[in-house]
Amino acid sequence: MASPGSGAQVSEAGRLPRLSGSTDANADWMSALSPRLWDVPLHHLSIPGSHDTMTYCLNRTSPISDKESRLLRLLAKALPCVTQPIVLKWSVTQELSVTEQLDAGVRYLDLRIAHMLQGSEKNLHFVHMVYTSALVEDTLTEISEWLEKHPREVVILACRNFEGMTEALHEYLVTCIQNIFGAMLCPRGEVPTLRQLWARGQQVILSYDDECAMNRHRELWPAIPYWWGDQVKPEKLVRYLEHMKSCGRPGGLFVAGINLTENLEYILAHPLQSLRKLTLPNLPYLSTWVREQSPGPGTRCTNIIAGDFVGADTFVNDVVRLNEKLLGC
Fold first, then answer.
1. Which residues are annotated as catalytic?
2. Alpha-carbon dihedral of residues 265, 271, 276, 282, nearest 10 degrees?
3. How many Å apart are CA 102 and CA 123, to the nearest integer?
4. Is the pTM of this model over 0.85?
5. Which of 102, 183, 216, 290 is the most exposed place for a label (fewest CB within 10 A)?
6. pLDDT in tens, the chain (329 residues)
Protein backbone atom coordinates (compact mmCIF):
# COMPACT_ATOMS: atom_id res chain seq x y z
CA MET A 1 0.00 0.00 0.00
CA ALA A 2 0.92 3.68 0.36
CA SER A 3 -0.43 7.02 1.61
CA PRO A 4 -1.15 10.76 1.74
CA GLY A 5 -0.29 13.29 4.34
CA SER A 6 0.06 14.56 7.83
CA GLY A 7 -3.61 14.87 8.62
CA ALA A 8 -4.15 16.57 5.25
CA GLN A 9 -7.72 16.51 4.01
CA VAL A 10 -8.50 14.99 0.64
CA SER A 11 -9.94 17.58 -1.71
CA GLU A 12 -13.15 17.19 -3.69
CA ALA A 13 -11.06 16.05 -6.65
CA GLY A 14 -9.60 13.30 -4.49
CA ARG A 15 -6.22 15.02 -4.27
CA LEU A 16 -4.17 16.26 -1.36
CA PRO A 17 -2.79 19.73 -0.72
CA ARG A 18 0.49 20.33 -2.53
CA LEU A 19 3.87 19.87 -0.97
CA SER A 20 5.75 23.13 -0.81
CA GLY A 21 8.88 21.64 -2.39
CA SER A 22 7.62 21.77 -5.98
CA THR A 23 10.21 23.32 -8.27
CA ASP A 24 11.34 23.24 -11.86
CA ALA A 25 14.99 23.84 -10.95
CA ASN A 26 15.87 20.39 -12.33
CA ALA A 27 13.65 20.48 -15.41
CA ASP A 28 16.67 20.16 -17.73
CA TRP A 29 19.24 18.45 -15.53
CA MET A 30 20.22 15.83 -18.11
CA SER A 31 21.13 18.39 -20.72
CA ALA A 32 23.09 20.29 -18.04
CA LEU A 33 25.28 17.28 -17.16
CA SER A 34 29.00 17.53 -17.84
CA PRO A 35 29.84 16.50 -21.45
CA ARG A 36 32.05 13.82 -19.87
CA LEU A 37 28.83 12.02 -18.85
CA TRP A 38 27.13 12.14 -22.25
CA ASP A 39 28.77 8.83 -23.24
CA VAL A 40 27.89 6.99 -20.04
CA PRO A 41 25.07 4.44 -20.58
CA LEU A 42 21.90 5.26 -18.68
CA HIS A 43 22.20 2.25 -16.38
CA HIS A 44 25.49 3.69 -15.06
CA LEU A 45 24.00 7.13 -14.31
CA SER A 46 22.12 8.16 -11.18
CA ILE A 47 18.47 8.83 -12.04
CA PRO A 48 15.68 9.98 -9.69
CA GLY A 49 12.33 8.22 -9.89
CA SER A 50 8.91 8.27 -8.26
CA HIS A 51 7.26 5.20 -6.77
CA ASP A 52 3.60 4.74 -7.77
CA THR A 53 3.81 7.92 -9.81
CA MET A 54 0.11 8.50 -10.45
CA THR A 55 -1.35 8.18 -6.95
CA TYR A 56 -1.70 11.97 -6.65
CA CYS A 57 -4.98 11.65 -8.56
CA LEU A 58 -6.60 8.62 -6.97
CA ASN A 59 -10.35 8.97 -7.21
CA ARG A 60 -12.05 8.81 -3.81
CA THR A 61 -15.31 7.72 -5.43
CA SER A 62 -13.79 4.85 -7.41
CA PRO A 63 -14.30 1.25 -6.33
CA ILE A 64 -11.59 -0.68 -4.51
CA SER A 65 -9.30 -2.50 -6.95
CA ASP A 66 -10.52 -5.97 -7.91
CA LYS A 67 -7.10 -7.33 -6.88
CA GLU A 68 -7.64 -6.34 -3.25
CA SER A 69 -9.11 -8.77 -0.72
CA ARG A 70 -12.79 -9.66 -0.85
CA LEU A 71 -13.15 -8.50 2.77
CA LEU A 72 -11.81 -5.03 1.95
CA ARG A 73 -14.13 -4.74 -1.05
CA LEU A 74 -17.13 -5.78 1.05
CA LEU A 75 -16.21 -3.25 3.74
CA ALA A 76 -15.91 -0.55 1.08
CA LYS A 77 -19.43 -1.32 -0.13
CA ALA A 78 -20.94 -1.62 3.34
CA LEU A 79 -19.10 1.28 5.02
CA PRO A 80 -17.74 3.51 2.24
CA CYS A 81 -17.57 6.61 4.44
CA VAL A 82 -15.20 4.79 6.81
CA THR A 83 -13.29 2.49 4.49
CA GLN A 84 -12.54 4.81 1.58
CA PRO A 85 -10.74 7.56 3.56
CA ILE A 86 -8.58 4.95 5.32
CA VAL A 87 -7.66 3.29 2.02
CA LEU A 88 -6.79 6.66 0.49
CA LYS A 89 -4.58 7.57 3.47
CA TRP A 90 -2.45 4.51 2.76
CA SER A 91 -2.60 4.57 -1.04
CA VAL A 92 -1.36 8.04 -2.01
CA THR A 93 2.42 8.09 -2.48
CA GLN A 94 2.82 11.30 -4.51
CA GLU A 95 1.36 14.78 -4.33
CA LEU A 96 2.98 16.43 -7.36
CA SER A 97 1.32 15.94 -10.74
CA VAL A 98 3.23 14.07 -13.43
CA THR A 99 4.26 17.35 -15.08
CA GLU A 100 5.40 18.76 -11.73
CA GLN A 101 7.40 15.61 -11.09
CA LEU A 102 9.12 15.94 -14.47
CA ASP A 103 9.79 19.63 -13.79
CA ALA A 104 11.30 18.63 -10.43
CA GLY A 105 13.73 16.30 -12.22
CA VAL A 106 12.08 12.87 -11.88
CA ARG A 107 13.05 10.72 -14.89
CA TYR A 108 11.68 7.29 -13.93
CA LEU A 109 7.90 6.99 -13.73
CA ASP A 110 6.24 3.95 -12.13
CA LEU A 111 2.97 3.55 -14.09
CA ARG A 112 0.60 0.87 -12.76
CA ILE A 113 -2.08 0.37 -15.36
CA ALA A 114 -5.51 -1.22 -15.01
CA HIS A 115 -8.76 -1.70 -16.85
CA MET A 116 -11.64 -1.04 -14.48
CA LEU A 117 -14.41 -3.63 -14.86
CA GLN A 118 -16.96 -0.89 -14.20
CA GLY A 119 -15.31 1.40 -16.76
CA SER A 120 -15.87 1.81 -20.46
CA GLU A 121 -14.40 -0.72 -22.88
CA LYS A 122 -11.11 1.03 -23.61
CA ASN A 123 -10.64 3.58 -20.82
CA LEU A 124 -7.46 2.56 -19.00
CA HIS A 125 -6.68 4.00 -15.58
CA PHE A 126 -3.81 3.80 -13.11
CA VAL A 127 -4.29 1.90 -9.87
CA HIS A 128 -2.98 1.58 -6.34
CA MET A 129 -5.72 -0.04 -4.25
CA VAL A 130 -8.18 2.34 -5.90
CA TYR A 131 -8.26 3.71 -9.43
CA THR A 132 -7.15 7.14 -10.62
CA SER A 133 -9.34 9.80 -12.14
CA ALA A 134 -6.63 10.27 -14.81
CA LEU A 135 -6.74 8.12 -17.94
CA VAL A 136 -3.59 6.45 -19.26
CA GLU A 137 -3.86 7.91 -22.75
CA ASP A 138 -4.23 11.46 -21.41
CA THR A 139 -1.25 11.03 -19.07
CA LEU A 140 1.02 9.63 -21.79
CA THR A 141 0.04 12.61 -23.96
CA GLU A 142 0.92 14.97 -21.09
CA ILE A 143 4.35 13.34 -20.80
CA SER A 144 4.90 13.57 -24.57
CA GLU A 145 3.99 17.27 -24.59
CA TRP A 146 6.44 17.90 -21.75
CA LEU A 147 9.20 16.10 -23.66
CA GLU A 148 8.59 18.23 -26.75
CA LYS A 149 9.41 21.29 -24.62
CA HIS A 150 12.53 19.59 -23.20
CA PRO A 151 14.11 17.90 -26.25
CA ARG A 152 17.31 16.78 -24.45
CA GLU A 153 15.62 15.16 -21.47
CA VAL A 154 15.00 11.40 -21.39
CA VAL A 155 12.35 9.52 -19.39
CA ILE A 156 12.11 5.88 -18.41
CA LEU A 157 8.48 4.76 -18.24
CA ALA A 158 7.81 1.51 -16.38
CA CYS A 159 4.39 0.19 -17.43
CA ARG A 160 3.32 -2.58 -15.07
CA ASN A 161 0.55 -4.21 -13.04
CA PHE A 162 -1.93 -4.48 -15.98
CA GLU A 163 -4.88 -5.42 -13.80
CA GLY A 164 -7.83 -6.64 -15.89
CA MET A 165 -5.93 -6.35 -19.17
CA THR A 166 -6.75 -8.73 -22.04
CA GLU A 167 -4.48 -9.32 -25.02
CA ALA A 168 -6.69 -6.99 -27.05
CA LEU A 169 -6.30 -4.24 -24.44
CA HIS A 170 -2.52 -4.74 -24.44
CA GLU A 171 -2.49 -4.23 -28.21
CA TYR A 172 -4.71 -1.17 -27.84
CA LEU A 173 -2.36 0.29 -25.21
CA VAL A 174 0.76 -0.41 -27.29
CA THR A 175 -0.89 1.29 -30.30
CA CYS A 176 -1.61 4.34 -28.09
CA ILE A 177 2.03 4.36 -26.94
CA GLN A 178 3.27 4.20 -30.55
CA ASN A 179 0.90 6.94 -31.71
CA ILE A 180 1.66 9.27 -28.81
CA PHE A 181 5.46 8.96 -28.66
CA GLY A 182 6.30 7.90 -32.23
CA ALA A 183 9.96 8.50 -33.03
CA MET A 184 10.67 9.45 -29.40
CA LEU A 185 10.64 5.73 -28.49
CA CYS A 186 14.02 4.05 -28.21
CA PRO A 187 13.82 0.42 -29.44
CA ARG A 188 15.17 -2.17 -27.02
CA GLY A 189 18.77 -3.24 -27.30
CA GLU A 190 21.96 -2.08 -25.61
CA VAL A 191 21.26 0.53 -22.95
CA PRO A 192 22.02 3.81 -24.75
CA THR A 193 23.94 6.90 -23.72
CA LEU A 194 22.54 10.41 -23.71
CA ARG A 195 24.65 11.33 -26.75
CA GLN A 196 23.24 8.37 -28.70
CA LEU A 197 19.65 9.23 -27.76
CA TRP A 198 20.11 12.90 -28.64
CA ALA A 199 21.60 12.00 -32.02
CA ARG A 200 18.58 9.82 -32.82
CA GLY A 201 15.99 12.21 -31.41
CA GLN A 202 14.83 9.56 -28.91
CA GLN A 203 13.61 10.46 -25.43
CA VAL A 204 11.63 7.50 -24.10
CA ILE A 205 12.69 4.09 -22.84
CA LEU A 206 9.47 2.23 -22.08
CA SER A 207 9.58 -1.01 -20.12
CA TYR A 208 6.51 -3.21 -20.39
CA ASP A 209 5.89 -5.87 -17.76
CA ASP A 210 4.04 -8.28 -20.04
CA GLU A 211 6.47 -10.55 -21.84
CA CYS A 212 4.12 -11.59 -24.66
CA ALA A 213 3.28 -8.02 -25.63
CA MET A 214 6.90 -6.91 -25.14
CA ASN A 215 8.20 -9.61 -27.50
CA ARG A 216 5.79 -8.50 -30.23
CA HIS A 217 7.00 -4.89 -30.26
CA ARG A 218 10.62 -3.71 -30.52
CA GLU A 219 9.71 -0.37 -28.96
CA LEU A 220 9.09 -2.08 -25.62
CA TRP A 221 11.82 -3.01 -23.12
CA PRO A 222 11.69 -5.84 -20.57
CA ALA A 223 10.48 -5.16 -17.03
CA ILE A 224 13.00 -3.18 -14.97
CA PRO A 225 13.96 -4.86 -11.67
CA TYR A 226 12.73 -2.93 -8.61
CA TRP A 227 14.34 -3.50 -5.21
CA TRP A 228 11.30 -3.27 -2.91
CA GLY A 229 12.13 -3.78 0.75
CA ASP A 230 8.53 -4.08 2.03
CA GLN A 231 9.58 -2.50 5.33
CA VAL A 232 7.89 -0.04 7.66
CA LYS A 233 11.12 0.92 9.48
CA PRO A 234 13.75 2.90 7.54
CA GLU A 235 16.62 1.06 9.26
CA LYS A 236 15.31 -2.29 8.01
CA LEU A 237 14.76 -0.85 4.53
CA VAL A 238 18.37 0.37 4.36
CA ARG A 239 19.55 -3.03 5.62
CA TYR A 240 17.60 -4.68 2.80
CA LEU A 241 19.04 -2.33 0.18
CA GLU A 242 22.57 -2.92 1.42
CA HIS A 243 21.95 -6.67 1.24
CA MET A 244 20.77 -6.34 -2.36
CA LYS A 245 23.88 -4.34 -3.21
CA SER A 246 26.06 -7.06 -1.69
CA CYS A 247 24.43 -9.58 -4.06
CA GLY A 248 25.50 -7.49 -7.07
CA ARG A 249 23.54 -5.11 -9.28
CA PRO A 250 21.53 -6.30 -12.30
CA GLY A 251 23.12 -5.94 -15.71
CA GLY A 252 20.84 -3.22 -17.09
CA LEU A 253 18.55 -0.54 -15.72
CA PHE A 254 17.29 -1.19 -12.20
CA VAL A 255 15.58 0.62 -9.34
CA ALA A 256 16.41 0.87 -5.65
CA GLY A 257 13.20 1.86 -3.89
CA ILE A 258 13.47 3.96 -0.73
CA ASN A 259 9.69 3.81 -0.21
CA LEU A 260 8.47 2.61 3.17
CA THR A 261 5.61 0.09 3.23
CA GLU A 262 3.08 -0.33 6.04
CA ASN A 263 1.34 -3.55 6.99
CA LEU A 264 -2.05 -4.28 8.56
CA GLU A 265 -0.53 -4.57 12.04
CA TYR A 266 1.01 -1.11 11.69
CA ILE A 267 -2.23 0.44 10.40
CA LEU A 268 -4.28 -0.99 13.28
CA ALA A 269 -1.70 0.23 15.81
CA HIS A 270 -1.62 3.73 14.26
CA PRO A 271 -5.24 4.62 13.38
CA LEU A 272 -4.50 8.33 12.95
CA GLN A 273 -1.42 7.75 10.77
CA SER A 274 -1.03 7.82 7.00
CA LEU A 275 1.73 6.94 4.58
CA ARG A 276 2.65 10.60 4.37
CA LYS A 277 2.95 10.83 8.17
CA LEU A 278 5.04 7.66 8.13
CA THR A 279 7.29 8.80 5.28
CA LEU A 280 8.08 12.49 5.81
CA PRO A 281 9.76 12.24 9.26
CA ASN A 282 11.98 9.44 7.92
CA LEU A 283 13.15 11.24 4.76
CA PRO A 284 16.28 12.72 6.40
CA TYR A 285 17.47 9.23 7.41
CA LEU A 286 16.74 7.84 3.93
CA SER A 287 18.36 10.87 2.29
CA THR A 288 21.56 10.17 4.21
CA TRP A 289 21.66 6.69 2.64
CA VAL A 290 20.97 8.16 -0.81
CA ARG A 291 23.87 10.62 -0.56
CA GLU A 292 26.23 7.75 0.28
CA GLN A 293 25.51 5.91 -2.98
CA SER A 294 27.57 5.92 -6.18
CA PRO A 295 26.47 5.33 -9.78
CA GLY A 296 28.64 3.49 -12.27
CA PRO A 297 29.39 -0.07 -13.44
CA GLY A 298 30.55 -1.45 -10.09
CA THR A 299 28.70 -4.36 -8.52
CA ARG A 300 27.59 -2.20 -5.54
CA CYS A 301 26.65 0.83 -7.62
CA THR A 302 23.10 2.19 -7.79
CA ASN A 303 21.19 3.40 -10.85
CA ILE A 304 17.59 4.62 -10.53
CA ILE A 305 16.54 5.54 -6.99
CA ALA A 306 12.77 5.93 -6.51
CA GLY A 307 10.88 7.35 -3.56
CA ASP A 308 7.55 8.62 -2.29
CA PHE A 309 6.50 12.30 -2.00
CA VAL A 310 9.35 13.33 -4.27
CA GLY A 311 8.80 17.07 -3.86
CA ALA A 312 9.04 17.00 -0.08
CA ASP A 313 12.80 17.35 0.43
CA THR A 314 16.15 17.33 -1.39
CA PHE A 315 15.65 13.80 -2.78
CA VAL A 316 15.84 14.68 -6.49
CA ASN A 317 18.85 16.98 -6.02
CA ASP A 318 20.60 14.33 -3.94
CA VAL A 319 20.14 11.64 -6.61
CA VAL A 320 21.17 13.90 -9.50
CA ARG A 321 24.29 15.13 -7.67
CA LEU A 322 25.52 11.55 -7.28
CA ASN A 323 26.53 11.78 -10.97
CA GLU A 324 29.32 14.17 -9.94
CA LYS A 325 31.06 11.14 -8.37
CA LEU A 326 31.54 9.75 -11.89
CA LEU A 327 33.65 12.79 -12.78
CA GLY A 328 36.22 11.85 -10.17
CA CYS A 329 36.89 8.45 -11.73
1. 51, 128
2. -60
3. 24
4. yes
5. 183
6. 333 333 333 333 333 334 444 457 899 999 999 999 999 999 999 999 999 999 999 987 877 777 777 777 777 677 777 777 888 899 999 999 999 999 999 999 999 999 988 777 888 999 998 999 999 999 999 999 999 999 999 999 999 999 999 999 999 999 999 999 999 999 999 999 999 999 999 999 999 999 999 999 999 999 999 999 999 999 999 999 999 999 999 999 999 999 999 987 888 788 889 999 999 999 999 999 999 999 999 999 999 999 999 999 999 999 999 999 999 85
